[in-house]
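Data deposition worksheet. Section B asks for the primary sequence of the deposited chain exactly as it was used as input, without tags or linkers unless they were present during the calculation. Section C holds the resulting structure in token form. Section D is free text for depositor observations; keep each observation to a single sentence. Incomplete worksheets are returned to the depositor.
Section A, Depositor: J.P.
Section B:
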Amino acid sequence: MDIIFILQLFIIFSMIAIGGRYGSIGLGVSGGLGMCILVLVFGMQPASLPVNVVFIILSVITCVSVLQSAGGLDLLVKIAERALKKKPQAIVFIGPLITSTFTIFCGTTYVAFSVYPVIAEVAAQAKIRPERPLSVSVIAAGIAVVASPMSAATAGMVAILAASGVGLVQILVVIMPAFLIGVMCACLSVFKRGKELEQDEEFKRKIMAGEYQFLAPEIQETKQKIDPKVKRALIIFSLGILTIIFFGTFTNLLPHYKLAGGEIERLSTPNLIQMIMLATACFIMLFARIPANKLTEASVFKSGLIGVVGVFGIAWMTGTFFEAYKPLFSDSLSHVVRDYPYLFGLALFAFSMVIFSPSATVAALMPLGVSLGIPPHILVVLYPCVSGDFIVPGANQIACVAFDRTGTTKIGKFVINHSYLRPGFALIIGAVVSAYFISQIVF
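Section C:
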């Protein structure tokens, strides 16, 4: 290991540290700067662009943004509000199931954000400490990207593991039930956390000082007739997802092509997802009769594009570095991962904790795992480990502290000692352990 390697590694981490301060766009452009230094200064050969991952993300966010323009996401939020208010005493379990379902269905945590204030208020009305359902709901929504066929992280996994013969359905068959078990572990970890609401000192102080009043008017339910166009949009979107899962299950139904060398190649899963998502968006646009001007107003598309920039820059930079030193990593780490392959999960968790992005972690490190010879089924088991971004509180976590008017949801003075740590670790550990046993059956 020479001084050049150490210097280049320092540049990689410096770019990640600099970009991480500015979010996904910052990571993307700092990754571009890192590429310039590695290629133009050190003469490294650029790695292949993460084209499949980027285009899958673009097609998915296009479809979800069209659904948002049709009013489909707003309808999902209304349905969630009704479910939460119907069984308030079970909100510790219902809340995370709803928020994670939104993420699984849409591939983004954006929709779940609208439900957090409702969870906080419904819990308070039921005299349940809001920290319990709110903390686990935020964590479940964030980590649910690994169980979503629509997420950028899963798109990356599909593209990376396709060459190993592992497809979308195999990933979901392992991860979906493992994630649900992990959610239950997280719910149980906070079920009796802290004092009961009426015994909490901070809450009693707020009541005495008149700083808290029950029956927040913003969550009063108003019955509205659902527009048939919105229903059609949701049905079409659901059919699009089911179509991807169907063809992912019955791959023999996919078109086959004869290559120049006489080999037969089947339509790849990344291309399938891209086509189906764009076609689904088109059907929603036509049958929901969305005005042209509304198509450009969807906030999901903006947030999705920001994520694309982050994945693009970071994945390209780290891919270039790992490709250049592939023999070194293979020689020095192959015996370790051969004997203890699950230690790779710690690397995934630590990396995601630094760059705050499961999809960027997948794009950056999963190819390294493949090149090190880690069996694909183990990489699938370790997939939940890419969700370590909850360690340092992000926008959703900070916002939910404000949503909890009772003051029970907290971020400690050391920043990382916050209400979300316990459910976060419980969910990931529960999911990985469950995925291990499920993978023994699937693979």
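Section D:
Residues 49-210+225-440 form one domain.
Residues 299-324 form the longest helix (26 residues).
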